[in-house]
UniProtKB/TrEMBL annotation:
<dbReference type="GO" id="GO:0003700">
    <property type="term" value="F:DNA-binding transcription factor activity"/>
</dbReference>
<protein>
    <submittedName>
        <fullName>DNA-binding transcriptional LysR family regulator</fullName>
    </submittedName>
</protein>
<feature type="region of interest" description="Disordered">
    <location>
        <begin position="278"/>
        <end position="300"/>
    </location>
</feature>
<feature type="compositionally biased region" description="Polar residues">
    <location>
        <begin position="289"/>
        <end position="300"/>
    </location>
</feature>
<keyword id="KW-0804">Transcription</keyword>
<dbReference type="InterPro" id="IPR036390">
    <property type="entry name" value="WH_DNA-bd_sf"/>
</dbReference>
<dbReference type="Pfam" id="PF00126">
    <property type="entry name" value="HTH_1"/>
</dbReference>
<dbReference type="InterPro" id="IPR050389">
    <property type="entry name" value="LysR-type_TF"/>
</dbReference>
<dbReference type="GO" id="GO:0003677">
    <property type="term" value="F:DNA binding"/>
</dbReference>
<comment type="similarity">
    <text>Belongs to the LysR transcriptional regulatory family.</text>
</comment>
<dbReference type="InterPro" id="IPR005119">
    <property type="entry name" value="LysR_subst-bd"/>
</dbReference>
<feature type="domain" description="HTH lysR-type">
    <location>
        <begin position="1"/>
        <end position="58"/>
    </location>
</feature>
<keyword id="KW-0805">Transcription regulation</keyword>
<dbReference type="InterPro" id="IPR036388">
    <property type="entry name" value="WH-like_DNA-bd_sf"/>
</dbReference>
<keyword id="KW-0238">DNA-binding</keyword>
<dbReference type="Pfam" id="PF03466">
    <property type="entry name" value="LysR_substrate"/>
</dbReference>
<dbReference type="InterPro" id="IPR000847">
    <property type="entry name" value="LysR_HTH_N"/>
</dbReference>
Length: 300
């Protein structure tokens, strides 16, 4: 078999279009169409079929897509010179999807670690709005950092740290006029943090077991927005214990223990298996692992 056909097959499976695949490969649609004919004869499958004005992959083509992409990336890794991890000439961009709260605490120390060892490397941080998408599988994100859920089944993961939740309110909030028990905590107005607009979570289940229910006055998509709201009103939100204490003080905020049992936040990193043996990616994971553990409150 002509192994060059794998490159054409990859382009076809990524683009679902003969014309776009030809543009991607820098060749003519006629050449790609001939290659598609050869691929169909070789595999015994039509691979792409017409559906109205578009072409759609067959079930076998869908199964082949990631396998073909992985084969080509492994071939590139075999033929390309492998950079030594941390070498000054490592010229590479690493893309990480991180929540805003983790980013605020980790972006600066992680960037400094990377710059110190590989000054030509570039870090790109993407918001958690792409969480739950196939970004890792598609290769648009190298690493996901945070609470890991909604991952593709083949995704590799590693637990990094566990951080308890605490409540936070402005320093002169009326709650602090006395002991903050579960009843007074539930009676306060709260800020929910959810990108999907969810108003309830584990803390509500814990309160319900005591016959209590809190009122969520507003739901915002980020921790930063919640903290900025809490600084100016009689609203309570949640944050990670020991996270950004100087920033909270500067905002006039005060943390306090949640008066009901709530599970800690489990922080980990996830990546696609195509990167597991990549030396550069291994080095980047080492930097993330060290940065998270050195900046986790439990390690201070």
């Amino acid at each position: 078999m002509d192994l060059n056909l794998l490159t054409t097959l990859d382009a076809l499976l990524q683009e679902n279009s003969v014309t776009r695949a030809a543009e991607r490969l820098g060749t003519s649609p006629a050449a790609v169409s001939r290659a598609l004919g050869r691929l169909r004869r070789t595999t015994g499958d039509p691979l792409l079929v017409r559906a109205g004005q578009q072409m759609v992959p067959t079930p076998r083509a869908v199964r082949l897509r990631e396998e073909v992409r992985s084969l080509l990336e492994h071939a590139d890794a075999v033929l390309a010179p492998a950079p030594g991890p941390g070498l000054p000439d490592l010229d590479r961009t690493f893309t990480a999807q991180v929540s805003d709260l983790l980013l605020a605490n980790l972006a600066a120390p992680l960037t400094e670690r990377v710059r110190a060892q590989a000054p030509r490397a570039v870090l790109v941080f993407l918001p958690e709005s792409i969480e739950g998408t196939p970004a890792l599988r598609q290769g648009t994100v190298d690493l996901e950092l945070g609470v890991l859920d909604h991952l593709d089944p083949e995704t590799r993961t590693e637990a990094l740290t566990s951080v308890p939740l605490v409540a936070v309110a402005r320093a002169d909030h009326p709650l602090f006029d006395g002991p903050v028990d579960a009843r007074r905590f539930a009676a306060a107005d709260h800020i929910g943090i959810s990108r999907q607009g969810k108003r309830h979570g584990p803390i509500d289940a814990a309160l319900a077991r005591q016959g209590l229910r809190r009122r969520v006055a507003a739901v915002v998509p980020s921790h930063t927005a919640a903290l900025l709201m809490a600084r100016t009103g009689d609203l309570v939100c949640l944050t990670l214990d020991g996270w950004l204490p100087e920033a909270l003080t500067a905002l006039g905020l005060r943390t306090f223990p949640i008066p009901v049992a709530t599970p800690p936040i489990e922080i980990g990193m996830a990546w696609h298996p195509r990167h597991s043996s990549d030396r550069g990616h291994q080095w980047f994971r080492d930097q993330v692992r060290t940065t998270v553990r050195q900046n986790s409150p439990a390690r201070r």
